[in-house]
Amino acid sequence: MTHKKIGWIFVSLLLILNSCFFGLELYKDGIRNQLMEKEQLSQETFTELSRLGSWTYFIEVLLLIIIVTVAVWIIMKKHRKLLSFFIYVNIAACVIFFGIGILLANIFEAAPGNLVQHLIGPAFITVILIIYQLVLLFMKRREIKN
Question: Global pTM?
Fold first, then answer.
């Protein structure tokens, strides 16, 4: 498989998983808003909220697993250009999905933190990859000087 195909598969997975996360979080928020009108939480509603919470958590973990797996694969292959591209894609994805999350929160009057919380892990991994890339660059420049 070419790097271009892998890139498109990765971007498609990010798009699908983030879209599912937004949909589930907005649905959960709708249920929570209905609960504010009621005084008592039924067992059925509690079960549904719990199940939806499990699904959103699963998506968060799946995003992290995919990003870490691809990053490790790129690092093992020692593809610095591909790693740079991967970092740019992750930065763009985090910025775009953060913007979409804030926009959806304003449109649907939902909690913005709930709609962007799944980006914390990918952003953290991206920062680690940037640091790794900078260390490699520093070491390479130091080698050239010596």
Answer: 0.89
